[in-house]
Amino acid sequence: MSQKPEESKALQIPSLFSAKEEPVSVPPDYLLQRDEPVDFTPTFPVYYFFYGTLTSPAQLKRILDLPKEPQLRKAEVNGFAIAKWGDYPALINGKKEDVVTGSTYLVKSEEEAQKLSHYETNAYEVADCQIYFKDDKDPKAFGGKVFVYAGDAQALLEQRFDRKLWNRQMAGKLGR
Description:
Elements: H1 5-12, H2 30-33, E1 46-50, H3 57-64, E2 73-78, E3 80-85, E4 88-93, E5 99-107, H4 110-120, E6 124-133, E7 141-149, H5 153-157, H6 163-170
Parallel strand pairs: 1-7
Antiparallel strand pairs: 1-5, 2-5, 2-6, 3-4, 6-7
Family: Belongs to the gamma-glutamylcyclotransferase family.
Protein name: Putative gamma-glutamylcyclotransferase
GO molecular function: transferase activity
């Protein structure tokens, strides 16, 4: 019995992440070593790392319209840094040794991911990250997603006008 080409191809593609262990096909610091961002369509559920207002279970309950406050896990990510965007912390790309602490939530659907993106606005982009959990539960590390400042990080650090973010936010509103 021969398989259709689509079935054969699907059977050969390994899962990027297992619920029981971290990826074995790439080094643990792979996400920090890459020069170009790797964008893959997440399969749900997928962990999201939060570092600011979304670390509040009450806030997540409200944004996601959950029946009760979610359980969050303490975690950290490497290779990112925090800068201030007005009164709010903004995650930017940092040095390999930089560590940001926060919490994670297991996003269960595309609908939840869209609600989070709407809350964060287009001032942030979803990026891949390696999450290191700070509790005694498994998994200890896992690939996930994080909201990263979408503007000019250097302009943010220097507290000057961010033309890149302004253009992003104004796209389509100025008759372009």
